[in-house]
Amino acid sequence: MRNLLIVCGIVLTAYIIYRVYQYQTLDKDLNQLIKKDAVILDVRTEKEYAMGHIDGSVNISLGTIRERYIELDPEKTYITVCSHGLRSVKVESILKEKGFRHVYNGGAWSDLQNRIHQKKNNISHRAH
């Protein structure tokens, strides 16, 4: 039992470090990715997507990505999002397995939407 707890603790710590790295990396490059026409790929269900999403995002759920990835262009850049960031990590991994080279985990769609709006507001304030 103790060994199981230790292993779980190590896995959780590694996951947290990975997520912090992903957020820092994406946040740093967010403006460049958006300017380069990165596609925001929302991997939640259609029902979740209908309840709210980032304008212009594409909805292909985690449950259908293995069949529908052929609808995507492997040369484009994708930012995957979902409700909390777990499904988007999985889809990022699946797409990379399928040969997509430019895929980034954006985490929770609402967090990414807020960061996009903050970046746009910062840019518009500098312009005035």
Automatic annotation (TrEMBL):
InterPro entries linked to this entry: GlpE_sulfurtransferase (IPR050229), Rhodanese-like_dom (IPR001763), Rhodanese-like_dom_sf (IPR036873)
Pfam families: Rhodanese (PF00581)
SMART domains, per database record: RHOD
Residues of the Rhodanese domain: 34-121
Highest taxon in the source lineage: Bacteria
Name of this chain's protein: Rhodanese-like domain-containing protein
Lineage start: Bacteria, Pseudomonadati, Bacteroidota, Flavobacteriia, Flavobacteriales
